[in-house]
Amino acid sequence: MIDDTARLLGELRADPSLAMIGHSLDYYYGDAGRAAAMDAFYRRFVRPGDLVFDVGAHVGDRVASFLRLGARVVAVEPQPPCVRALRRLYEGRPVRIVEAACADRQGSVALHVNSANPTVSTVSERFVRAADGAGGWERETWDAEVTVRTVTLDALIGEFGAPSFIKIDVEGYEDAVLAGLSRPVAALSFEFTTIARDVAARCLDRLAVLGFTGYDVSLAETMALDLGRWVTGREMRAHLAGLPHEANAGDVYAVTVSVSSMRALTRQ
Question: Span of the secretion signal (predicted)?
Fold first, then answer.
């Protein structure tokens, strides 16, 4: 399978129609140590046989990790080049690829495409405005728009079943994604950025309504839970508010399991 993946990656890099995601393919698939750390990190949330939703799958490095952990995956991604890469990389594997953006309702929406850095393409106009002139975002330009269909988490659950874990990384639209979820799952993560902390605050509000009880955070791509303990939503809100702008981004992890189980998750 490793040889097959290397061959497929070579073919994808050579495809002129996928040139805009070449850097992503190199970065997200080019470091075996990073992949091993990712597997070790997600093992606390994902077990063999689990169903996992990867919302904002991009080129699928998390999909690969979830598969290595024995899970079945629903990968949701709106960018056509990324979808083509996902279909090539994971054909014949237990992966269902949904070409859409996750949102609070079914329909369609404009996707703001960053051709030079498609990993930060977004459907959130507020996110694009927040990035304008912000430190660390000076070189980012959203230079194209495409219309994409939208799906809700509830609709995905209705079609594929309830997941054990949901990963959400959609560049400032995480609150809208969670607005489309009406039932809790065992665990999920959502990305936050320091240019859009209000989005994270709304996510925390929504998760409280859904019954999530414990939170931790991982900055950047450290593949570690920074606090080392599960805190309340109020504590997480204060922690995110106190981060320096330079922290830039990370992922909040939320769980609905018992306190004893949360402690076990933290130790893994």
Answer: none
**Which tens digit of pLDDT belongs to each residue from 38-97?**
999 999 999 999 999 999 999 999 999 999 999 999 999 999 999 999 999 999 999 999
> In the prediction, which pLDDT does 262 show?
55
Count the neighbouring beta carbons within 10 Å of the beta carbon of residue 165.
24
Residue 260's pLDDT is 41
Query: What is the architecture of the domain spanning 2-267?
Result: 3-Layer(aba) Sandwich (3.40)
Domain residue extents for the chain: 2-267
260 three-class SS: helix
Task: Give yes or no for a contact between 109 and 148, defined as CB atoms under 8 angstroms apart.
Answer: yes
Cα 76 from Cα 97, distance rounded (Å): 6
pTM check: above 0.85:
yes
HSE of 149, CA atoms in CB hemisphere, 13 A: 8
Query: Could you give the CA distance from residue 88 to residue 14 in angstroms, rounded to a whole number?
Result: 13
Q: In this structure, are residues 76 and 151 in contact, taking their beta carbons and an 8 Å threshold?
A: yes
Cα 1 from Cα 4, distance rounded (Å): 5
Q: Indicate the Cα dihedral angle 266, 69, 15, 57, nearest 10°.
A: -50
Rounded to whole angstroms, the Cα distance separating 262 from 143 reads 43
Q: How far apart are CA 205 and CA 170, in angstroms?
A: 18
